[in-house]
Structure formats: C-alpha cells, structure tokens
C-alpha cells in the first residue's frame, strides 16, 4: 500500500505540469490574439536547418531567422570578405546608447549584456543601401580592371604575363558579379536598424516613419552587448556601438502540414524556395501563419 505522502507528491507533480502547460498555452493565445505586424519572408530570411531531411525519424522543423545590421561602407578589399556575412554591430544615437547604462570598461565588454529592444526593418532603406553598395563595388572594380588592362598593354608585357593578368582580372570580375547577384537574390532583407533599453525611444523612431514601408517596421526584444571597440585603448573617437547578440525569438516552429510541403533535398543540390507569412503578436513574438513553395498556389 502506497504512502499518503507519495500520492500527494504525485498529485502535486501532475498539477504543476498541467499548470505550466496552461500558463504557456495562455501566453500563446494572448500573444496571438492581437497581430501587430505581418511580414512575407522567404528562404532569404528563414533558413532550413542543415540536418533537414537527413534524419528520417525527425519530422520536427524550425526555421531560423536570418538578419543583419546596416553595413559599413567598405572599401574594395573589405567588401570582398564581408559580402556574405551577417553583421551584428550597430551604431546608435547617444540617447539610445545611454539607455543601456553600460558600466566602465574595467568590467569588460563580454559581461556587459543587457535585455533591450531592437527595431526591425524588412526590405526597406537599409537593404536598398546595401544593394547600392554592391552595385557601386561592381562598377568600381570594372573601371579599375579596365584601366589596369590598358596600362599593361601600354607597358608591353610579354604574352605569358599578359594572359595571366587577363585571367586574374576575369576571375575578379566574375566574383564581383556573383556578389552583386547574391545581393539581389539571396541575402537577407531583414535588418536591425536601431536598439535601446527603453522601448519608448524606438517608438519615437517608429513614429517618424510613414508610407507603405512603415508596416515593414516592428519592435522586438533582443539581447544587447557593449561593442568590443568601445573599450579599445586608442586615441580615436569612440563610436556608440553595440553588439546585437540575439533576438529573443530567432527560430519559428513549422507545423507538420507546412513542413510536409517542403521537399527534402538531402544533397543540398537545389535551393528550396518558399514564401512564409510571419505574424508578430501582442508580445512581439512571431509565429508562422502560412507557408507555400514559390510559384505554387496557397
């Protein structure tokens, strides 16, 4: 015969589990009861996990949000290395930077992480600026390589060296052309453009935007860290920079009916292209409301 104490502990454990589930489901319902924004993202902003389709018994799927911050205006050499990377450094206005109340550099920048808010922009001015940078880099490289070719011809280089130089220029140009194509067709269009510990500061920024693109802006929670450059011991003027470590929600659960629509390509020979309707609710938490393969009917 079991002891009364054991039954009580079992009952308490069941109540705790049920209570936790009820709390979670209640928060989900409250979040989804109000839609504050809806974005139409694609495989450019929502990446499939690397193992998708490789584990036969695993039918679960989460799509990871791909985002970046506005790019520095790089010179030609830096662009060569930066064009595919997702940045996390963000330069802020003094009021936004001050709102985090970072400590002194003696504490180290690694330990100075704060909970805060960021302003997300989808397919807006930051992405257009990036496209412009990609095109300018491609055009500038074309002009420089053309000038080099003329100079080498005038210098009377021997045929072997001239062929080598021509081949090198052609490879550089093809690489730059591929970078421009990637900028137009593949990189994420989701940018973090501002951050603050005080949400009201971002609300003021958001209020200054109007027009059709205003609906593509939203405020979401994130973890913010002091930039390592702030504590560098140099004589240069310090930029109020932060490192956006992560968004509070960076992956979206894909329900089985939606996941079944995505073809499984274990060899990763083809890019799976799709469109996804992502809604943000009352607590700025996103969820997937629709998913279709590109070129197919909903």
UniProtKB/TrEMBL annotation:
It holds the Pfam family DUF4824. This is DUF4824 family protein. It comes from Alishewanella tabrizica.
């Amino acid at each position: 015969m079991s002891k009364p104490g054991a039954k009580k502990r079992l009952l308490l454990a069941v109540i705790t589990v049920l209570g936790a589930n009820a709390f979670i489901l209640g928060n989900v319902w409250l979040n989804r009861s109000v839609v504050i924004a809806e974005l139409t993202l694609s495989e450019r902003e929502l990446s499939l996990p690397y193992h998708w389709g490789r584990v036969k018994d695993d039918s679960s799927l989460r799509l990871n949000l791909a985002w970046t911050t506005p790019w520095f205006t790089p010179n030609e050499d830096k662009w060569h290395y930066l064009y595919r990377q997702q940045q996390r450094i963000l330069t802020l206005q003094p009021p936004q930077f001050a709102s985090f109340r970072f400590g002194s550099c003696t504490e180290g920048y690694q330990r100075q992480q704060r909970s805060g808010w960021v302003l997300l922009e989808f397919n807006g001015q930051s992405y257009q600026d990036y496209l412009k940078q990609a095109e300018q880099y491609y055009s500038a490289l074309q002009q420089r390589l053309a000038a080099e070719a003329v100079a080498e011809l005038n210098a009377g280089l021997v045929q072997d060296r001239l062929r080598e130089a021509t081949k090198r220029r052609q490879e550089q140009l093809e690489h730059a052309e591929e970078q421009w194509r990637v900028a137009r067709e593949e990189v994420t269009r989701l940018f973090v453009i501002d951050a603050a510990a005080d949400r009201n500061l971002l609300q003021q920024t958001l209020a200054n935007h109007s027009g059709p693109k205003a609906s593509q802006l939203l405020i979401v929670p994130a973890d913010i860290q002091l930039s390592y450059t702030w504590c560098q011991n140099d004589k240069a003027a310090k930029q109020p920079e932060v490192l956006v470590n992560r968004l509070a929600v960076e992956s979206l659960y894909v329900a089985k009916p939606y996941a079944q629509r995505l073809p499984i390509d274990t060899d990763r020979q083809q890019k799976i292209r799709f469109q996804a309707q992502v809604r943000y609710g009352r607590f700025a938490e996103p969820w997937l409301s629709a998913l279709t393969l590109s070129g197919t009917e909903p």
